[in-house]
Amino acid sequence: MFSKIVKEPIFHFLLAGALLYLAYQFLNPVPADSYNDNTIVVNDSILKNMLNVRSKNPEGQFNVNAALASLDEKEKEVLAMEYIEEEALYRMALEMGLNENDFIIKRRMIQKLSFLLEDLNTGKIDTSHDNLLAYYETNSEEFKTDDKVSFAHVYLSSDQHGKNTITKAENTLKLLNNKQLEIKEALSHGDRFPLNHKYTKITPTQSKSHFGIKFTDSLFKLEPEDHWQGPIESGYGYHLVYINSKEPGYIPSFESIRDLVANSYTYREKQRLNKLSRQSIIEKYSVLREYE
């Protein structure tokens, strides 16, 4: 029975919370009977936390110990009074029940608990070589690189040619191939394109951002040839393409992308463990649904 309880995520959460509380009590000892619920204690730890919260420096670049040591007595008293005022108002608000049914406070507490669960679960993730390798082998397609195509295109504008655009494109294609025109000469037979006429090692994602999905799907089905191909339709009109090269995507070796695999594995595991932790908390309660 006990071994089953130990395996529960909520057990680890409660244990970690208890350890954090005991550690705080150990590092911040308070004499017995020295204060009660009506006592507001201000110590160095609280002042450091106040300074840290008010600091706009990125985490890890703010020396809170040095900051506290640099304060004179007057500055330290001002900081202490800020905390005392906040704490007094906070306690009075709790006594008045102002936190009840407050959506903002509720969301903030849920957020803090979520962060705590995430931190606890992160420490449980085993990123050993064997685990990462197994994850890589199972999800190898996830790490496959994109296909890449290098090409030039002659553009025929729908705005300029209207219903005759496709006919114009087909006739231009015949002209380019019959005369075996080089790319530089061929471009003069098309219209001005708002972006580029030549692309080197472009990926499907990049192609979609320039030409749209329809053009991209057609482009990546083509293979390099020694002639112009098309017409291919896009949102702009029609394109005649000359594909210089095409590089198929491939799955890199595990060792070459180990860090990428570790990041992906850690993210997936964190999501899985967070879901289990949340579910274990939900299962502690009986749910009564009173809606139809």
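[next item in queue]
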Amino acid sequence: MSDWLLGIYDWIVALHVISVIAWMAGMFYLPRLFVYHVAAAPGSETSETFKVMERKLLRIIMNPAMAATWIFGLLALWALPAWFAEGWMHAKLMAVLVLSAMHGVLARWCRAFAEDRNTRSGRFYRMMNEVPTVLLIVIVIMVVVKPF
């Protein structure tokens, strides 16, 4: 199986990168929507519009992109299993696990907004908007520089 995967390895990596880009776009945008949603009165037309935008971003873009990122990433790792022994890969996988947990947290906050239960401020969401950025920096450095 791994020989077959090696034969299509470039395609797997290309699809992995495309999935990561789509996922990260959503990870950057959803907390920014929350920043603006906080300012809208619950039940207002603006709030209801944000709910639709947030739900569609999460369900149509972010969830499938995260799943594809994991699938193509694991296929790439299966094709080159020796990389799993590398320290940089362990650090990358840990950062991706944290990013996936952040995705889950964003989904929970999205549900809170959908149910008009948000209790956090715009400032809080501005700060949380930086978490995916920091994780992305760590992941890219691990993959490109391979520091250990």
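[queue empty]
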